[in-house]
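Pilot study result, target chain (367 residues):
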Amino acid sequence: MLLKKLSVLNYKNIEQADVQLSPRLNCFFGNNGMGKTNLLDAIYYLSFCKSHVNTTDSQLVRTGQDMCVLQGVYDYEGREEELFCAIRPGHKKQFKRNKKEYGKLSEHIGLLPLVMVSPADSELIRGGSDERRRFLDMIISQHDKNYLHALIQYNKALVQRNVMLKNMVTDVSLYEVLEMQMGMYGRLVYEKRRDMVEELIPVFNEYYQLICESSEMVGLHYISQLEEDEPEALLAANRERDRILGYTSTGIHKDELEMKLNDSLIRRVGSQGQNKTYLIALKLAQFAFLKRKGNTLPVLLLDDIFDKLDSQRVEQIIKLVTGPDFGQIFVTDTNRKYLDDILRVIPEDYAIFKVEKGAAEQLDKEE
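Predicted structure:
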């Protein structure tokens, strides 16, 4: 899959940008706050129907404007795909594929596989367990429609059960119906998450050691209450306690993904450089996983990833992402030097853009 053209109107601080893109490497440079990250976020939005950062759609519309528009033209394994999105605060957003609006946005997830590496990823390490569950869900949902359906249905039943608990409903039969649904869908989600983490670990370790050239070992440990008990039995056993609490205290919505460095939690022992290397290696492992599972090569977005890394790690990352395992890449940085280092590796096919005050200007290759 390749993004050939991106058009952005009134998205965050971008007034208007129309860029023709390289099928291999696209570099965006400029000072902080000029709009580089927002351009990558627009690409992310066209894949996931949401921003990479936790924000409401109304906050995405440029200040003083009443709507924003995103358009992307893709080469999808030899056929052209056009995506259109319009966001107006207070209205349902429009999301169209080849001029036909989706019935449900979930139908779109997985069409345009994408991996983004950004400074916001630090929340995976230091944030709550919900951040790490979202990370797992995002990976699996991109290639497995059954998983996405099960997750949506589980969450609907969870919301209904929580409403009943808060309202002190006592009808056992109503609880049993919801708990049966949560058990069926929860078991599927648990098994898919568990299997994916097991598959990710060896590739993740390989990338980490390639980047830092050390003997440090990284790991992921998926923790779920479903390891020991069936979900329906757990929900039934905790029903009275949950009624007192006013919410559902057991289930896959409480799962955790422990992130480890040499058998210790990385959030406790990792340096800035180790944390960043950990997250980059994890995202590259995610890319490899989606590449194996999908029908098309994912797009890779690298937003300001070289900050706080020594030159040796930067060099190793450049070697990896410019290799034959990767396809179309988007890179942002304030430091033109790092981009020039990448361009020396891929001199034949790239586009470079200077981003200033929300506008992107494509430069000649010799500039």
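One observation from the pilot: The mean pLDDT is 92. A full batch analysis is planned for the follow-on phase.
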